[in-house]
Amino acid sequence: MKATEKIWFNGELVDWADAKIHVLTHTLHYGSGVFEGIRAYPTSRGPAIFRLTDHMRRLHDSASLLLMELPYSVEELVDATKETVRVNEVESCYIRPIAFLGYGEMGLNPLPCPVQLSIAVWPWGTYLGDEGIKRGVRTKISTWRRMDPNINPVAAKGTGIYINSSLAKVEALKGGYDEAILLNTNGTVSEATGENVFVVKDGVLMTPPLSAGALDGITRDTVMKIARDLGYELREQTLLRTDLYLADEAFLCGTAAEIVPIREVDDREVGDPGELTRKVQETYFSIVHGEVEKYQDWLEYPSDA
Ligand code: PY5
To answer: Where are the alpha helices (DSSP H) in 96-145?
Structure first.
């Protein structure tokens, strides 16, 4: 990680090296935190944070699913993020807000523990690599199932829930693949470890519905709007693993990963990135760099404070 100068921590900007926690932090023991992943991109008006308010709303939603009361409003978190990007003087960065339960009581009841919140920003290249963005990644259907929503609230971006993603990710990497795709307990496609999944068949763009256990991805929502505006037919539809094998095109999307073509699923060739994938990818990158007037509302400028 490339360290920056300051991290916003419980309302104050502290030096990167001083943003520390106690070993008895409740969330360290039980995974009771919620977080976000956001990106800022360079534009002609300076850095712009993509859909910042939507991300902070989701942070609040995640917290409410865990009955965690955040001590800062969406607006306060938006302002804090802009301030953190400004003081660190970064042109582009990844932004990681996390709310967690601090040191207090060690029992499983999280309610008495103090809620703490930090926002770190640092330059971070595309998550699955430049080659992945260009040529596509090799994926594997994981032996790990995406958790049932009655086992863990998968709609929450909760820290503990990511054990599931990490197990699947490591399994895929050790098998020589770039990324894992998880089925849910019903056996239909849910999502990847940190990305939502789309397939194209006969010109129709499809993605599993949220009821398949996927996170309500902000990039997923962005892709759906872009695709509709480009005139493509879009369906939220239950997908089988074989729909991935037989896809004409497929891609992953998420804030860290951005839009990444899938070139292989379980050693079945999907092939080079297709036309629809390329078009959506190009449009996405133009939008986040502030080059498309129509989607300017999605950009929030730290310089506007
Ligand atoms: N599904 C999961 C399980 C995710 O973790 C993410 C984001 C997504 C989907 C896509 O959501 P969005 O489009 O709102 O980003 N993952 C984080 C990210 O910042 C962490 C990845 C390391 O992209």
So the answer is: 130-135
Distance CA 201, CA 181 (A): 18
- Residue 120 CA to ligand 1 centre (angstroms): 16
- 228-257 burial string, b = 16+ CB within 10 Å, else e? eeeebebeebebebebbbebbbbbbbbbbb
Q: Is the CB of 270 inside a 6 Å radius of any atom of ligand 1?
A: no
Q: How far is the centre of ligand 1, averaged over its atoms, from the C-alpha of 17 (Å)? A: 26
Contact 222, 280 (CB under 8 A): no
* Two structure tokens written together for 298: 């999605």
Mean pLDDT of the chain: 97
- What are 83-133's pLDDT values in tens digits? 999 999 999 999 999 999 999 889 999 999 999 999 999 999 999 999 999
- Residue to probe by mutation, ligand 1, list 58, 255, 298, most atoms within 8 Å of CB: 255
Looking at the DSSP bridge assignments, the partners of residue 48 are: 41
Rounded to 5 degrees, φ, ψ at 198 are -130, 150
Is 169 marked active-site?
Answer: no
How distant, in Å, are the alpha carbons of 50, 101, 241 from that of 55?
Answer: 9, 20, 30
Q: What is the Cα 244 distance to its own chain's centre? A: 21
pLDDT above 80 for 305: no
Torsion angles phi and psi, residue 60, rounded to 5: -65, -40
In the reported structure, the alpha carbon of residue 83 is separated from the centroid of ligand 1 by a whole-number distance in angstroms of 23
Q: Are 177 and 140 in contact (CB under 8 A)?
A: yes
Structure tokens at 220: 């997923």
* Closest by Cα among 235, 262, 236 to 251: 262
Active-site pick, 6, 82, 157, 169? 157
